[in-house]
Specification:
By secondary structure, the chain is of the alpha+beta class. It is built from 41 helices and 16 strands.
């Protein structure tokens, strides 16, 4: 379906003439508002009927053109009669490109000839602006002379880019033509190199802010990599480098081949259509394709679900495929435009290095010397191997040839042992694996060689935990290990040592490549991934042991994060069961690295010192079982004697011995000596006080350690959690210990509401006072939490705008020998841990251990609980407990 622009011009022009003939200013204003409302509705209907994105934005630009032309003529007659040849109204930015989205701002320049026209120019612009504002437009504007435009174009990148897209809407063609000519003569030609460098720097800054990869879970259609701005940047560079600021102009000049221009134009039009839908859907300027909007946009664009994929997943895959292609092609041609032409010399000739297989290195880019030479699958793999070994990118010619010869990567080639050996060899090159795989992936080779991986290409993950699509997350996870191999950071030395112990890096990297391969096939991605992994390892001719290890990594890729973050690592049964499942030290090393890479590859800031400490503790404890070192084992008696000596001036030897005797044996093995010392000090000083506390900033974990000693009672943790919540303190983790004499010695890791350690001693004193008041019964904890929640209405309102996370309650009566493990996964909100703990206390259940974790809007709280007699819960008791917890959380949500 196409829009007839001549019909629009005729129809709109006639309507505007009728409005102009209205007798009063009020009637004309109302007529103009009605005109714009009707035209917007017409555009919305055309969009719904499937009109292309470029057509809709061009039609809106035309309507605004006609509107501005009418009011400009009236304004010049009233305020500057006879001076029309000294003024011009110029469209800038997206409006200048005739790409005005439904709710975008209108950027205009009121151009005048010189200083003596400045006053009349200001009067003229004000008359036009007031009417634009009155009818509801948001206008970005400036009123400048010709000289001022040239000066600002030389100094300010944003203004210069806007002027590249300048288009005359009304006024003097000669004045506008002079501006265009002098911009070329005085800005673009003499400053070509500087302009291009500034464009590249601006793009790098934009990527840092909005995302440097196209496959973001919630991309910004305009600014993220692969978005509309990528093509804008290329066209701005085209103006500076070649004097052409349109895609067709670059094609006509022989700069961009038609084979690249067509997919770029298609991707750009798709993006415009999606952006138009976002604007119509939200009724405002909107560029962020957020998770909550994706399903509605997919429906509006007529996507339908399949048995395997939701409609929004199919839609987002199309978006990502377009965005990846647009990003790759614009980047290739932008780099070419920015490359300064050099005269041939012995130095430039020396940089053209021939390689085996007919390849040649030209200025750091790999090309095929004879473009007519055939490329089979083996030579394609050879090209990627060269790229990996040298760090070279593929030149645009080689990129085109690779894609043209992808049919050579057929079933016969995929089953060839020689190809498998070459591919696995590339997976063994530590520090360069991800870059090679990314090169393969972007050019389509990886999806052809591993069709199973093609299924997860551009597959969006509908949760707020993952920031990237499945394929992008996978490549980033492998990239984390590349960074580890290339890093010299002392903080990562222990992981580098584990990496060095891995017998075959190819097995580890293949495990990472396969770990999420089952996604996109419905639920249970691990089991489905195992079946796929078996087919892949068989096709790659891996021996039985290596294939088994890859399958082990896929089967257990979530196990270490699950145990380290949700289980009591002081529980010997937890460690023994995990070590038995792992089996060998090599498996443990690989699984540790996979877990570290998998978590780190989710998104910036997801890997933390706290997760690091937990993962490493689990690694060391499992390692001690799989490869025991007797000399390194900590004997309890020497530890007790050492601590007694360190505390000899404060606490008697008998008190130290009693502390150890009153706690389980694994307390001494699992608790750091400094923490034990702190616990003993607090217990010794408790006397008749309700509670004693100590604080220590934990710089390594970026949190504050709170150690606490109190007489245990049912609901103690609920009171503590509620008080901390009411005071705006986030609980990161909890370790609860109760001595046989009824003294609780608990350790919390906490931070403030923005995730920073609590460091102010006065703040510590204030929190201590509130905790004492709560434990002595002087304060109403429930009321304090409710008050805190009422004060967070804006925060809660923002959270409710996100997709609701369902509450999931699960039980584990097997992993611990002494306790029943309760896991509650729910949408994060203030007081969640307090509500759960209060519900458990109300059921006469004791919490003996807890872990609290939050990722974006999701919380996972884990509690080890016993009944009043200190025993595990019976299986029949679990459903009623779960119902009570769910009721408490539902009530809390209703109160919000």
């Amino acid at each position: 379906m196409q829009i007839n622009f001549e019909t629009i011009q005729q129809h709109a022009g006639e309507k505007l003439r009728r409005i102009e003939s209205q007798p009063s200013a009020e009637a004309r204003l109302e007529g103009l508002k009605k005109f714009l409302k009707i035209e917007s509705q017409r555009l919305r209907l055309r969009h719904r009927f499937g009109v292309g994105g470029g057509q809709v934005v061009a039609a809106r630009s035309l309507i605004v053109d006609l509107f501005i032309q009418r009011i400009s003529r009236a304004a010049i007659e009233e305020h500057a009669a006879g001076a029309a040849d000294r003024f011009a109204v110029v469209a800038l930015g997206g409006y200048g490109r005739q790409e005005l989205a439904p709710y975008s701002d209108i950027d205009v320049l009121f151009l005048h000839l010189g200083k003596r026209d400045a006053e009349r120019g200001a009067t003229l612009s004000a008359a036009i602006l007031y009417l634009l504002w009155d009818v509801g437009f948001t206008v970005g504007h400036s009123c400048r002379s010709l000289a001022e435009c040239l000066a600002i174009a030389g100094d300010d990148t944003t203004s210069r880019n806007a002027l590249i897209d300048a288009r005359l809407v009304w006024g003097s063609p000669d004045l506008f033509g002079t501006l265009v000519r002098r911009l070329d003569e005085e800005v673009f030609k003499p400053r070509r190199g500087a302009v291009l460098e500034e464009l590249l720097a601006e793009q790098a800054t934009r990527y840092v802010k909005f995302g440097e990869v196209a496959c973001l879970q919630e991309p910004n259609i305009k600014e993220s990599a692969g978005g509309l701005r990528d093509l804008h940047t290329l066209l701005w560079a085209g103006r500076a480098a070649y004097g052409k600021a349109t895609l067709q102009g670059l094609v006509g000049a022989g700069v961009v081949p038609e084979r690249d221009a067509k997919p770029m134009a298609a991707a750009y039009d798709f993006h415009l259509r999606v952006r138009n839908d976002l604007h119509f859907l939200t009724g405002r300027r909107a560029d962020q394709l957020s998770l909550d909007l994706q399903p509605q946009v997919a429906r509006n664009l007529r996507y339908a679900e399949t048995p395997e994929l939701q409609a929004s997943e199919i839609f987002m895959r199309d978006y990502f495929l377009h965005a990846r292609r647009l990003h790759r092609l614009t980047l290739t041609h932008l780099e070419r435009a920015a490359r300064r032409p050099e005269k041939a010399s012995w130095f430039s000739r020396a940089r053209n290095v021939a390689a085996l297989g007919g390849f040649v290195m030209r200025d750091g880019a790999l090309e095929l010397e004879d473009r007519a030479a055939p490329l089979d699958g083996d030579r394609l793999l050879l090209a990627f191997s060269y790229g990996q070994a040298t760090g070279a990118t593929f030149g645009s010619g080689l990129q085109e040839l690779v894609q043209a010869h992808l049919p050579a990567v057929n079933r016969q080639f995929r089953a060839a042992p020689e190809a498998a050996r070459a591919f696995l060899k590339m997976l063994r090159v530590k520090g360069r694996v991800a870059a090679a795989l990314r090169q393969m992936h972007e050019l389509g080779f990886l999806g052809k060689y591993l069709p199973e991986f093609a299924r997860i290409t551009c597959l969006v993950q509908h949760d707020l935990y993952h920031r990237y699509t499945v394929d992008e997350h996978t490549l980033r996870a492998i990239g984390v290990l590349d960074e580890l191999a290339n890093s010299r950071s002392r903080a990562m030395e222990r992981y580098r040592q584990v990496y060095a112990e891995v017998r075959d890096p190819a097995v580890l990297h293949l495990g990472l490549l396969m770990h999420d391969i089952g996604k996109g096939l419905g639920g249970g991605h691990t089991e489905k991934g195992l079946a796929i992994t078996e087919r892949v390892t068989s096709r790659l001719h891996l021996d039985r042991e290596a294939a088994g290890q890859v399958a082990f990594l896929v089967r257990h890729h979530l196990t270490m994060s699950h145990i380290s973050q949700r289980r009591d690592l002081a529980d010997e049964k937890v460690i023994a069961d995990f070590a038995a499942a792992v089996g060998t030290l090599d498996n443990l090393n690989m699984l540790t690295l996979l877990t570290y890479a998998d978590i780190s590859g989710v998104g910036p800031g997801v890997w933390s010192e706290w997760k690091d400490a937990l993962l490493w503790e689990l690694h060391l404890k499992a390692r001690a079982v799989l490869a025991p070192e007797p000399a390194a084992e900590r004997a309890i008696e020497p530890l007790r004697q050492r601590i007694a000596l360190m505390l000899s001036s404060e606490v008697g030897v008998d008190e130290v011995r009693a502390h150890f005797d009153l706690l389980p044996e694994d307390y001494a093995r699992a608790t750091a000596p400094q923490v034990i010392i702190e616990h003993i000090r607090l217990a010794n000083a408790l006397n008749s006080r309700p509670v004693r506390l100590s604080w220590r900033v934990n710089a390594q974990a970026r949190c504050t350690d709170l150690h606490l000693c109190a007489r245990n009672r049912r609901g103690l943790f609920a009171s503590l959690a509620g008080t901390l919540t009411a005071q705006g303190v986030n609980i990161l983790s909890v370790h609860l210990n109760t001595r046989a004499d009824g003294i609780a010695v608990d350790s919390f890791k906490v931070c403030d509401t923005v995730g920073e350690p609590i460091t102010d001693p006065e703040r510590w004193e204030q929190l201590e006072a509130e905790i004492r008041r709560a434990l002595s019964g002087e304060s109403d904890v429930a009321a304090a939490v409710a008050k805190r929640l009422r004060g967070q209405t804006s925060h809660l309102r923002r959270r409710r705008a996100l997709p609701a996370a369902p509450t999931r309650i699960t039980w584990d009566n097997e992993s611990s020998a002494r306790s029943t493990i309760l896991e509650v996964r729910a949408g994060d909100r203030l007081g969640l841990a307090y509500r759960i703990a209060s519900a458990l206390a109300g059921l006469n259940l004791d919490i003996v251990f807890a872990k609290v974790a939050t990722e974006k809007n999701l919380a996972l709280d884990v509690f080890y609980v016993t009944d009043a007699a200190g025993e595990k819960l019976r299986d029949g008791d679990l459903p009623p407990v779960g119902q009570e917890i769910r009721r408490a959380l539902d009530e809390a949500r209703a109160e919000e």
